[in-house]
Amino acid sequence: MAEITQTTTEDNTKLDNGKQQRIGIVEDSQAQADATYYSHSFQGTLQLLPTELAKTIESFESSIGMPVWLLLQRDEDEIDEQVVELFWKKREELPSQSPVALLIHSVGGYTECAFRLAKLLRHRCGRFIAIVPRFAKSAATLLALGGTDILLNDEAELGPLDAQIMDMDREEYASALDEVQTLERLQAFALDALDQTMMFLVARTGKKIETILPHATMFVAELTKPMFEKIDVVHYTQRARDVKVAEEYAVRLLRPRYSKDDAEQIARHLVEKYPEHGFVIDYDEPAHAGFKLQLKKPSAEQVNMLNSLVPYLGKQLILGRVYKEKTS
User: Fold this and answer.
1) Mean pLDDT over all residues of the chain?
2) pTM of the model
3) Which domains are present in the chain?
């Protein structure tokens, strides 16, 4: 998986106070002069933020009645060890046993890191609300499942939880579910072939089922043998375990607000029931697909605020709180 891009010399500028700043999408000098808000970067330096973005987040805090923490990533960024480490270093700034809102924009990352970040927020704050202005896919969906509520903006989306594994032969990521479901489909094909063969032989020969069954079974076994022989049992087991990891993490995050059966049903659905990793899961999906994940909509006022953030999303890596820059 791609690694989060670090701040480079070209990406940085120096302000009068001598602190290194990541400018991101704040490009013209007037915007820089007006920007009095910042967040922390991975290097512990200050990151200058667009004023309108920061003010909108301040307004959203007032509207929702709790501090807002940010996990706003670019498309090339991931939820990984660096993200968890930054939140861990700033954990003392999280309110103790008092809820926060986590604003998420992310294509995903590592499931174990998303799980650990959700647990960190829970342990420190007691609970958190996940807010998705545009999308929180894959591992970011897993992170959102840790919230007591998930607020999806208009047109916002979550994504399936099938694990993505690098295919070294094709040099691209593929779903671990591909191999797991291949065996399931072969099994279904074999049973269907046996049924059709039995019906054909009974109709043609008029002989009893117990007489025909051994011949039909042998025919189907020989038919499917080349396909089953191509399956690497050890490799299949590894992929089945990869799929199970995301499911088990999801169940653990869902359990505080769902029954065991409902948590397992939701997790299994998110892992197994979608044809591709990029499938859109929007506000209406649970009711349409028949699973019990509870999603909420922001108020009309909050929708307007979240929509005003959309032009900034994906263009700058912003983690943690938004702070006003100290002035002398």
Assistant:
1) 80
2) 0.73
3) 12-159+280-324 (3.90.226), 169-237 (no CATH)
